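Before a computer can learn anything about folding, someone has to put a protein's shape into writing. The outcome of that step, for a single protein, is printed below:
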Amino acid sequence: MNGDLPPRHIELRRSEGLAIVWADGSESFYPVAMLRRLSPSADARAVREALEANPLTVLPSTAGHGPLRAEAAEMVGNYALRITFSDGHSTGLFSWRYLREIDPSGRTNTRGGHA
């Protein structure tokens, strides 16, 4: 399976998550909270690394934003998706390969990213 192939269909369900039908016909669903937690942005990666080093790390506050939502998704070239979250985060580029790696179904998951 080629993780770099673009999906056949993408549906952003703003309060629920991202549904993808891949070129090979398989389907994936990524809950909003999981996408935000596993954002490939530098700041989100730094938070994950801090948590691995010290599980008592204080997480950045998202207070005042209400329930987390995915407000928008835009294609970046033919290789990734940029998601804007209701807390203002929008710097992570979710490549097709990365989305395959974090697939909650576990079919291609190499990071243990079950939601």
Remarks:
- Strands lie at 9-13, 17-21, 27-31, 70-76, 80-85, 93-95.
- Helices lie at 32-37, 42-53, 96-101.
